[in-house]
Amino acid sequence: MHYDPHDAFVAPARAGAQIWRLVAGLLTVAAIVIGLGIALDTVFVSSGALADRPGRPITVLVSLFAFGFLSIGAMVAARLLHHRPGLSLIGPPARALRDGLRVLAALAILQIVLGLLPPWGDGGTGISPRENLPFGDWLSILPLSLLAVLVQTGSEEVLFRGYLQQQLAARFSARWVWLVLPSLAFGLLHYDPASMGGNAWLIVAWASLFGLAAADLTARTGSLGAAIGFHAFNNFFAILVVSATGPLDGLALFSMQVDMADPALRPMIALDIAALFVSWLAARLALRV
């Protein structure tokens, strides 16, 4: 594995690599997220602005933009506890932008190719997308929707592949520590047995592998650009194109009525894991890493 760029990416974290700083930093992130979340709730929910509007576009937009609290918290923690710039969590800006655009282009081409291959239609699953938003309405809010997805995915990457991965790598030389632990934490945050039933741990496995792929791309390139592009493209389709019917389908062009606890979904989850592997390879090919 060619992880030389990762050394420069981690360098700003080395001066404040003590574990107590990381623990205090994560507590700081939690406090900021909770505090800003309460403020957001007061403004939008308690005022009645979002009352009785679950799944509506405005509700989903607010939910996605609220993920920005993660990056705010991580950058504040980096500055206060590790005495380094918040932007050091991202890496060189020009490289991040270049890598992100390359990954987005590669995954767009891959998606077109996969869309031309059989099986077509519902693939024998019996689950067919239905129109969720009229195309004109969807298109009119698409710029704001794209920005919301970028904030959501970028903020998760700043916390997990930026702050957490950098600080662990600065403290521990063993790759499994800074590659695997943040990825497992990312995966466990997707654990939802109430709605996913017996499939919950499969979703955790998929999310953990997704986190591992993003961590690997970050280590190979030395910035968050590739990981953000990788993550944003995935969520663009899952949130804005075809979404499972539920609280996050308000921005999607199409939606599907899916019971996430249905055991019949397990082969589809396995296919998603295979598609994740192919996407990771496509990203690496585009980045030449």
UniProtKB/TrEMBL annotation:
CAAX prenyl protease 2/Lysostaphin resistance protein A-like domain span: 140-237
Coiled coil: none
Record carries keyword Transmembrane helix: yes
Keywords annotated in UniProt: Membrane, Transmembrane, Transmembrane helix
Any single biological process term in GO: CAAX-box protein maturation
InterPro entries: CAAX_protease, Rce1/LyrA-like_dom
Protein name (database record): CAAX prenyl protease 2/Lysostaphin resistance protein A-like domain-containing protein
Native source species: Poseidonocella sedimentorum
